[in-house]
Amino acid sequence: MTVVLVLILLGPPGAGKGTQAARLCAARSLAHISTGDLFRENLKQDTALGKRAKGFMDAGQLVPDELVLEMLFDRVAKPDCRQGYLLDGFPRTIPQAEALEKRLGGHAKVVVLSLRVPEPVLLERLTARRTCKACNHVHHLRFAPPKVAGKCDKCGGELVQRTDDTLEVVSKRLEVYRNQTQPLEGFYAGRKLLAEVDGNRPEEEVFRDLSRRSIGGEAA
Questions:
Q1: In this structure, is residue 173 part of a structural domain?
Q2: Using an 8 Å Cβ cutoff, are 14 and 120 in contact?
Q3: Residue 56 falls inside a structural domain
């Protein structure tokens, strides 16, 4: 069986994972697998997996890891994943990582890249975002400020701070990441699969570093 590249990108909210994931997938011809997208697609298509997930969600319960893995491996069996894929949003916990490891067996080359960004920088990145109420275009008060205060450059709509970009909510999201997901760094470091990358640099520099480390087995 062909060994495929499985790229796992770790990093707290605001570290730039979304931007870098898209660039890495384009550069390496990898499929971008988002667990959020998997849920939405299975629910929309009313698949058997989607129906099972909906049962848990309607009951106010978390979808079991095993069902998430079933959705994931159903997706990665498709032709666009033959060259490899990048996992976005999974695993989030050590039990999920253990279950993923078991399912992958020896048929994958796993590379885990961790974006490191100081917490004060993360807070600034996230709390200074402003989103247009009309077109959802995002400005940043420091890095991409609007030409007219409070107005969207694209459509002139009103710019607002989303509730999940407030200091209180951002601080809570970072706390959840520290408690639930950051321990994955130790899990993968123990397996010689982790490469840490300084994410507090210009986007192009971060991308070059991530790209280099995703190729040559430098994660040990």
A1: yes
A2: no
A3: no
